[in-house]
Design goal:
CATH class: Alpha Beta
Number of domains: 1
Number of helices: 8
CATH superfamily: Metallo-dependent phosphatases
Strand content: 15-25%
Distance between the termini: 19 Å
CATH topology: Purple Acid Phosphatase, chain A, domain 2
Number of strands: 13
């Protein structure tokens, strides 16, 4: 069995299918990890949701910020004029697909391969085990309809921007979800910055990309979310897979066992990199 991981789809289903075909993905034997943000901006968010859901036990995805935003709009908590979102919500059987999406986790772990995947990353102030436990706390809110709807009313906002174990209630869950789904730059104490979203070398004062803070982890962290990183950024501690297909660049799929990367560009050209 091979384990593959692919960066943010953002409603771009055709390149995903091309990548799966080129690696001869076998749903009976192989497994696919997706870094979240299955929806929005691309041409077929509804089809993407349905396709990933129908992969069943052969695929695992985490929630991204765009996924949560779509769920909040579907719940009537937010309104939108976005044509992409409105088209998605008007699709046949979308209620069933979004119910499935609402049950997806914020963090996935493969203990044998020593891998963890979240959409945006893990703050340097959290250990791997702490991140696993905090993800479970937030998921317990998101997976139950009544508590999910109540939280969506309070989800939007950048505060608290710094982690404290004493945080409670919606403040605690908001920080956890912001860290897992929106984080790029942060301070060593987990203070989050949402005003900068560009290249890694364009950090605000006293901040760095979250993965540049020196913290030796027990797992390699697989993440998406940050298309401006471009290229496959990786070390023994992290692996960035969002390479900005929806912005005209390319989609990246990586065999997490062999390290081989397969890319599909906006012209449908598939090429390999080892």
């Amino acid at each position: 069995m091979a384990l593959y991981a692919v960066g943010d789809l953002q409603g771009c289903l055709n390149p995903l299918k091309m990548l799966l075909d080129h690696v001869n993905f076998d749903p009976a034997q192989d497994h696919l990890w997706l870094t979240g943000d299955l929806v929005n901006r691309g041409p077929d968010s509804a089809g993407t949701l349905r396709f990933v859901r129908e992969l069943g036990q052969s695929a695992s995805t985490v929630l991204g910020n765009h996924d949560l935003h779509l769920l909040a709009i579907h719940a009537g908590v937010k309104t939108t004029n976005s044509k992409d979102i409105l088209t998605t919500l008007a699709a046949a059987n979308i209620d069933q697909d979004l119910q499935w999406l609402s049950q997806q986790p914020l963090l996935i772990q493969d203990p044998q391969r020593k891998l963890i995947m979240t959409h945006a990353g893990i703050p340097p102030c959290w250990s791997d085990q702490q991140a696993i436990e905090l993800a479970a706390q937030a998921e317990s809110i998101l997976k139950v309809e009544t508590t999910r709807l109540d939280f969506f009313e309070q989800m939007y906002g950048n505060n608290p921007d710094t982690w404290q174990e004493a945080l409670t209630g919606n403040d605690r869950i908001r920080y956890i979800i912001n860290a897992f789904t929106r984080m790029r730059f942060c301070a060593s104490n987990g203070q989050l910055n949402f005003s900068h979203s560009g290249a890694a070398n364009d950090a605000p004062d006293n901040m760095q990309p979250w993965f540049h803070w020196q913290k030796r982890r027990q797992h390699t962290l697989v993440f998406g979310h940050w298309a401006a990183l471009m290229g496959v950024t990786q070390s023994d501690d992290y692996l960035a897979l969002d390479t900005g297909y929806v912005w005209g660049n390319y989609m990246t799929m990586m065999n997490l066992d062999s390290g081989e990367r397969t890319h599909c560009d906006s012209n449908g050209l598939v090429f390999y990199q080892v």
